[in-house]
Amino acid sequence: MSVSTQAAFESGHTDQIHDCQYDYYGRRVATCSSDRTIKVFDVAGEQQTLLANLTGHDGPVWMCAWAHPKFGTLLASCSFDHKVIIWKESEQGVFSAIYTSPATLHDASVNAISWAPHEFGLSLACASSDGCISVITHRADGTWDAQKIQGAHSIGCTSVSWAPAPPPGSLVAAGGASAAPVKRLVTGGCDNLAKIWRFDPSAGWKEEHQLRAHGDWVRDVCWSVNMGLPMNTIASCGQDNKVFIWTQNEPGGEWNKTLLNDFGAPVWRLSWSVMGNVLAVSDANNMVTVWKESVDGRWNQISATE
Q: Dmax of the chain from CA atoms?
């Protein structure tokens, strides 16, 4: 038996909404739109209250993302205007921009952003139509530094997601010993590929694997939380109507793919549950379906919402 609740409220946006994100505690929602604004709502009770209306972008805002609360109340946004803005709340409902990416960082639309696990510090990965991935990091002296992966995907990058900080197998490692966390990213692009990148302190970001299965643009990629279990899991979706689940059973091993489903329409976005075993899928049929893996390894749809 599954129980689900739905609530709708008027956002006040005057154009299409592209993203909607809960904060860490599930008490606030940030929305962004083609009307060039980001809105922040308090949704803790029965009522939804508008707390802030953030303006600063000069084009449609594609995505927003809350940072871990250990860094304060920070919200990042990215836009067609080539910019990434990081907003900080100084007092209740008062946000100001503490970082705006320079014009030299990206020369095309920034399509996706993803905060790193808090164990890696305050770092934001960004995917752009210029084919590059950037990683913006806050330094101890209060400045921001940006590293770029040039030519990550030909034609353009559509999506980016961080690997979890706990190394696979750390939960079951003998004597509690485990390898040091390694920074990894998975990215998707218009070259029909998903790529995995590993950070080397001496050499920067290097391509580690290519995941080939999609026959059209990869629209989203999402790395699942592994909770220290000995497996890596990534979901990818594409313009080819398909969602694939990729698994790596040991560090450095091969990535194996499983077709989750052919949805008959382009698939836009993916989201894992906080435990990493339930996947939500949003497609061009205006459907959101939820999938869970059974003990025999099969993925079963457990709910659908239009």
A: 57
- For 10, 35, 93, 126, 249, the CA distances from 53, given in Å and listed in that order, are 14, 11, 9, 23, 45
Sequence letter at residue 172: V
What is the side-by-side order of every strand in the sheet holding 17-22? 17-22, 28-33, 37-42, 49-55
Can you tell me whether residue 179 is helix, strand or coil? coil
DSSP string, 116-136: PPGGG-SEEEEEETTS-EEEE
Give the mean pLDDT of 252-260. 92
**What's the predicted TM-score (pTM) here?**
0.92
Q: Is the dihedral of CA 166, 71, 62, 52 positive or negative?
A: positive
Read off the pLDDT of residues 275-287 as tens digits, 9 standing for 90 and up: 888 999 999 999 9
Q: For residue 276, is it left (φ>0), alpha (ψ between -120 and 50) or beta?
A: left
Give the type of residue at 81.
D
Residue type, 174: A
Distance CA 272, CA 304 (A): 15
In angstroms, rounded to a whole number, what is the distance separating the alpha carbons of residues 124 and 152?
A: 16
Classify 175 as helix, strand or coil: helix
